[in-house]
Amino acid sequence: MSSRVRLSLIACSREIMRIKQITVKHLFGIFDHTINLNMEERITIIHGKNSFGKTSILRLVNGFFNLKYSDIRAIPFQKFTIIFDDNSFVDVVKDSTSKNKKSNVRPKINFNFTSSDQKEKLTFYPNLLDGKTISFPLSMIDDFIPGLDRVGSEKWLYTPTK
């Protein structure tokens, strides 16, 4: 059974889970943050000094749940963990061997899902397609899709929808 099918089966077999805790290790290479979410009142306020990673942590959570791997790759961290209310968790780990900023190699990210009873473990590698990583120059996107304006290193704005 493929990991995608197994992942879907695991997701469908459970009731809705709530996030209990978010942990990030080595955010920007220096910060370790743990955010315990208020499960009773269902509101958690995240506060801290500027440039300490509040928005980046929210982007990691959004990137994970919306399958935006480029957002996850763009934020420098070593390990990102989401713990759910049933004590199952997912670890998002960046491959530390692909840190060279001058290299065109994107960091590899692995998703390790562990069930609450620790019996079901699943690792998902979104970087792989039949054992090969697809790679192409980002400038090709500008050439093949008219109406795109590049607004960041891996972000474009489709101008006809402004």
TrEMBL record:
Pfam families named in the record: AAA_15
InterPro entries for this protein: AAA_GajA/Old/RecF-like, P-loop_NTPase
Domain Endonuclease GajA/Old nuclease/RecF-like AAA: 17-116
Domain of life: Bacteria
Record protein name field: Putative excinuclease ATPase subunit
